[in-house]
Design brief:
Order of helices and strands: HHHEHEHHHHEHHHHEEHEHHHHHH
Number of domains: 4
Largest sheet: 2 strands, parallel
Number of helices: 19
Distance between the termini: 45 Å
Shape: elongated
Helix content: 40-55%
CATH superfamily of the largest domain: P-loop containing nucleotide triphosphate hydrolases
Radius of gyration: 28 Å
CATH topology of the largest domain: Rossmann fold
Length: 434
């Protein structure tokens, strides 16, 4: 490091530690801050949760003059609501760092949107959980709106993005690895063939594999909540039924034929006489709908649009019917007993103390007219409830406690922790032993 570089870098690291309470930068932050401090022009694209705010906040502490930030985002959600907040306007901005759950009630149109929306959770560095409720019935609805796009190239692009999203939801592969792979990153295999954590992963600080996050499982696939089954024979049954009914009927009719439903309409059409009638009566209708949905998702059959959509075979259908191509589908594995409640913090902590500190944080925030996370993030409070700092010297070792916040809030929080330990002797030992 040259003398000039040292002169620039030391104040940056000092502000990072004293003002923001962090010992190190997230990936790429240091280079961005350095460029701004050196008055270079910079065009930066960072992922959701990558730490964009610090990149312009820190230089404002180091440089002379006024920092002007122009943002198109409108903050829809403040911290006045503690239990649950819902919105359909993800793209308008969510001004909360401690979102713990993101629920998608239907399929997003593309992976870029899904990544941005799920990235609104856990921005304080604490664990968060995302649930996508996916049904293949979402696909025709999205296709309907895509088909309204007049520009052919844009329409093709939207279909391609939708197909990527469907693949993400249906392929039996780690969800995190798929997401990172889509954006050109590689999620490292954390464990060896014996299932043991690799030594190099124990001290990893990469953005794809943060040290404080449990390496695996990181999704339903890795947790064994779903299983991949070979449904080739069932796919052949469905496509045979479509072919033998002259590709003139919709989903419900094909399912009725396969399950052997003896309705007046089926008898009038003499579809109870075809070879595939009733061959799938040992499975319920939901199973056959799942098979049809997967065939649609993988482009092996097509559903027409209009008032009376029907199922059509595709050229690729022959690969499954006659060419030896297999079809695998994902099914939820039956869980024995209740699923464990997901953790919302990295490691055990004193929950009673956390509620006490959270109440204190809320009171201070109201007095100062700021959102609670501006006082301290959940991640910082969780660490206090693990370490139990009772002096301001102890408090300096807590992530997110810089000199400014230490001076403003340190003794107040230390006093609350001391009072808690006085009323609940042995709390720190129980937490360590948990």
């Amino acid at each position: 490091m040259t003398h000039g570089e040292k002169q620039v870098k030391e104040p940056i690291l000092r502000v990072l530690r004293d003002v923001f309470g962090f010992d190190s930068f997230l990936p790429n932050q240091e280079e961005i801050v350095q460029a701004i401090v050196e008055r270079q022009d910079a065009f930066i694209v960072m992922p959701t949760g990558g730490g964009k705010s610090l990149c312009y906040q820190l230089p404002a502490h180091v440089m002379n003059g006024t920092c002007m930030v122009i943002s198109p985002l409108i903050s829809l959600m403040k911290d006045q609501v503690d239990v649950m907040v819902a919105t359909i306007a993800f793209g308008m901005g969510i001004d909360k760092s401690n979102v713990r759950y993101v629920l998608h009630g239907d399929l997003p149109k593309n992976i870029e949107g899904y990544y941005q929306e799920t990235g609104r959770s856990g921005r304080d560095g604490e664990p968060a959980h995302c649930l996508l409720l996916f049904g293949y019935g979402d696909i025709p609805k999205i296709r309907f709106f895509i088909d309204q796009t007049e520009d052919e190239s844009e329409r093709t692009h939207q279909v391609r993005c939708l197909n990527h999203m469907v693949t993400y939801a249906t392929v039996h592969a780690c969800r995190r690895k798929q997401l990172l792979g889509y954006f050109g990153e590689v999620y490292p295999d954390a464990r060896d063939e014996g299932g043991n954590l690799k030594p190099e992963m124990e001290n990893s600080t990469s953005s794809a594999f943060p040290r404080q996050t449990p390496p695996l499982p990181c999704c339903d696939i890795c947790a064994g909540e779903v299983e991949s089954i070979d449904a080739t024979q069932d796919a052949q049954i469905v496509m045979s039924a479509i072919a033998r009914t002259d590709q003139r009927f919709g989903v419900h009719h094909i399912v009725a034929v396969v399950t052997g439903e003896r309705s007046d309409r089926i008898r009038q059409l003499e579809h109870d006489q075809i070879k595939t009638f009733g061959v799938g009566r040992d499975r319920d209708k939901r199973h056959w709908r799942l098979i049809i949905d997967n065939l649609l998702a993988q482009g092996l059959i097509e559903q027409t649009t209009g008032d009376y959509p029907v199922l059509k075979l595709q050229p690729e259908s022959k690969e499954v019917l006659f060419g030896g191509r297999q079809l695998h589908v994902l099914k939820t594995r039956k869980q024995e007993g209740k699923r464990p409640k997901p953790s919302t913090a990295a490691g055990p902590y004193d929950q009673a103390l956390f509620e006490t500190l959270r109440t204190l944080r809320k009171r201070l925030a109201v007095e100062q007219g700021v959102p609670p996370f501006v006082v301290f993030s959940d991640k910082t409070l969780h660490q206090m409830c693990q370490v139990f700092p009772t002096t301001t010297i102890d408090m300096t070792g807590i992530s997110g406690v810089g000199q400014a916040k230490l001076a403003r809030y340190g003794e107040t929080f230390c006093a609350a922790i001391r009072e808690h330990l006085k009323n609940q002797p042995g709390s720190e030992k129980r937490t360590v032993d948990a």
